[in-house]
Write a structure and sequence with these properties.
Strand content: 15-25%
Order of helices and strands: HHEEHEEEHHHHHEHEEHEEHHEEEE
Shape: rod-shaped
Distance between the termini: 49 Å
Mean pLDDT: 77
Largest sheet: 5 strands, antiparallel
């Protein structure tokens, strides 16, 4: 495209320069010729008054000499009244040309070796016609024409080169964004989802770049959502798998019991593999739209009713607090249930039988806080656990349980923190920004323990999220 624009500009500019320069050059040459013959007419006009008064040779020679053109001027006087024909100066014109001027009575020009001559008829007092011949060299006719043509040629070449340079710059300005767009599309087609195009260049290409980047973002979002859906669905299988694994402990000994336990372990490994495969790209979850949400207290009661049966089988003490009144949050019911199942499943998976646990719901003025705590050994390194929740798991963990919880909280502008619980084990705090309350970005909220079993939300304006 770049060279095509240069060629088009070169052709168009050349045609324009030729269209204007050639006629202008011809006009300049014609003007130089007219100027030369106008000077010759003025020289002839100097001699004409003297011819109308006298035909004396000496006087006419002085007049011709005074005109300063004695070398290029000749005077042809006809014979008559006892006088012979008289010629002053050097003759260059032919006899027939002079005779034709006398007969016609008007000036004419004729070509001679080295230039041209102007033949100007002048009426004498005797009624005869004399002819004044003025020689115009070719150098006078072309004087300044070559210089003018050279200037025109230089201007034309400068215009052509300038147009080529401008077309090349414009071509680069158009081609580079187009090339980047092509390269971005090629990279995106090869699976490099981070490929983006700078939004620069002409307005049309800028709009194309904006559309491409938007399309790429949509592709990334769609792929991330698909991976999240696959990962979430796979992770939700962990809840019944945990129940199955724990129930296999009550099967006793025997081939059937061993086969069942082996099958459950293999199924757990397959589910972990599916989750890790689905999490190859970091997912992104959009916040719930207006009007969406659920009653957090109702979901907590429902999930605790599910897990309480297993807790009784293992001799675990449990309690629920703050779930006796409705607590609306902008989170889908299934998402909150999945987050609670992930945390409670971790309690049953990573703590010994008989370990107590609790779920608390705190409905504050500007936040809803869900606490899942246990009396287990705790987490030695909470930061590592949260980091694993943002990536692939290790040590038999997929890392997706905490990631589901984190994404649920961050979708509302909240966050997740891991600490020590009043029960002596681990406490996972989910801070959720309810719809219609204080904006999530207006400050930093922290949990501060007043006394066992009671928490408060602290609003600190000196820090920003």
């Amino acid at each position: 495209m770049r060279w095509a624009l240069v060629k088009v500009s070169l052709a168009v500019t050349t045609m324009v320069v030729v269209a204007f320069a050639v006629p202008l050059g011809l006009v300049i040459r014609e003007m130089a010729r007219d100027r030369a013959f106008s000077n010759a007419e003025r020289e002839a006009a100097v001699v004409a008054p003297a011819l109308s008064i006298t035909t004396d040779r000496d006087q006419l020679e002085r007049v011709v000499a005074a005109a300063g053109s004695d070398a290029g001027m000749a005077v042809h006087l006809p014979a008559g009244d006892g006088q012979e024909a008289l010629e002053l100066g050097r003759r260059r014109a032919a006899d027939e040309d002079i005779a034709a001027v006398r007969t016609l009575g008007r000036a004419s020009t004729t070509g001679v070796p080295g230039g041209s001559t102007l033949l100007q008829p002048v009426a004498l007092s005797t009624g005869k016609i004399a002819v004044v011949e003025v020689y115009v060299p070719e150098s006078d006719v072309t004087n300044g024409v070559g210089t003018a043509w050279a200037v025109l040629a230089a201007v034309g070449v400068a215009l052509i080169l300038g147009s080529v340079a401008v077309a090349d710059r414009l071509g680069v300005r158009m081609v580079r964004p187009a090339q980047r767009l092509v390269e971005g599309a090629h990279d995106l087609g090869e699976g490099r989802l981070g490929a983006r195009v700078p939004e620069e260049g002409p307005s049309e290409l800028r709009l194309a770049a904006v559309a491409f980047n938007s399309m790429a973002d949509q592709v990334v979002q769609l792929l991330a959502n698909e991976r999240e859906l696959a990962a979430d669905l796979s992770h939700r299988l962990r809840t019944p798998l945990t129940v199955l694994r724990l129930n296999t402990a009550s099967l006793g000994e025997g081939p059937a019991a061993d086969q069942t336990r082996t099958a459950v372990e293999q199924l757990e490994r397959e589910v972990d593999t599916i989750i890790r495969t689905a999490r190859e790209a970091k997912p992104q979850t959009a916040a719930a739209g207006p009007g969406a949400g659920c009653d957090a207290a109702e979901v907590v009661r429902e999930r605790m009713a599910f897990w309480s049966a297993l807790a009784e089988d293992e001799g675990r003490k449990w309690r629920v607090a703050g779930a006796d009144r409705p607590v609306r949050i902008p989170v889908a019911r299934a998402d909150l249930a999945a987050a609670l199942d992930a945390l409670l499943g971790n309690v049953f998976r990573h703590t010994a039988e008989g370990t107590a646990f609790a779920v608390d719901v705190h409905n504050g003025e500007d936040a809803v806080i869900v606490l899942v705590s246990d009396a287990g050994p705790g987490i030695p390194d909470p930061e590592t656990a949260m980091a694993r929740g943002r990536g692939s798991g290790s040590d038999g963990s997929t890392g997706l349980g905490l990631d589901i919880v984190r994404r649920l909280a961050e979708s509302t502008g909240g966050d997740v923190r891991i600490g020590s619980s009043v029960l002596g084990g681990t406490e996972v705090r989910i801070w959720i920004q309810p719809a219609g309350r204080a904006p999530a970005g207006s400050g930093h909220r922290q949990m501060r323990r007043r006394r066992p079993g009671r928490f408060a939300v602290v609003y600190n304006r000196s820090r920003s999220r």
